[in-house]
What does this fold into?
Amino acid sequence: MPKPDWHPERLAARLPYLRERARMMAATRAFFAARGHTEVETPCLVPSPGAEVHLRAFETAFNPHFGAGEARRLYLRTSPELAIKRLLAGGVGACFEFARVWRNGEDSARHAPEFTMLEWYTPGAPLAALMDETEALLRAIWPACTAAPFARITMQEAFARWVGVDLLATIRADGSGDAALLGARDDESWDDAFFRLLAERVEPAIAAAPTFLTHWPAPQAALARRDPADPRAALRFELYAGGLELANAFEELTDAAEQRARFTADMVERARLYADPWPVDEDFLAALEHGMPPTSGIALGFDRLVMLVTGARHIRDVTWL
It folds into this structure.
């Protein structure tokens, strides 16, 4: 029978990774303190766990005690994003959070149902400046990183080079994708074909050296602004390094009406696929209506970063229990 993770033998094997994790957390806090970012803490129990179509959340319930309110459904957050953005609308300024987050059903060498996300926001910074800041952070906390300046390649360039497809030509005027133009298989939607080609052709080509994959197509805009220079693309990047997808970033959408329309469309699609749509986060939309400053923000999988820096092979090697 396998020994539990707390057993002295198992813990001793992981301690070098875990001590490096602690050093990296301290270095991250020092990095952001030097840049004037405030560390924040936002709720783990939320009325709406996020806006992702394909994520699954852990659900619970609030049962009033001594008459304290009404019973209501709650979730463990899949991200602190919407809560931090409410603070940005309130005027907190540049900030970051080491957030415990939960995603139901995720369990592999690189996934865990509970993990740590490092998320930070820099008001006034465009996407390119956030890439600069992200690279500076990694170099500050990863002393062995000797890579040349991190590569930057747009999705359009990547698909032209490794897939042989004019990706933006597959985007319709309304922002949806044309599956046939993307070369989708008979049973594939545009989204399905996009992610298959990304996984099969693009990610293997870029995953080793640190690379920012930028300007995602509009159907994958999520909470990002569309590119004013070409609205078929969104101001979004992901960071890859050492075979790992590390981070996802947006130049944030601040238009409440457009964000509501996106949320509504996403939950219609979620209901179609899984029959369990989440409520729209009305408090977040109210914060956008109040006014959130132009901001770029990023979510980085901290456990995966520790794996990269230490050479650990499994995400459980870099978590305490």
About this structure: The chain has nine helices and twelve strands.
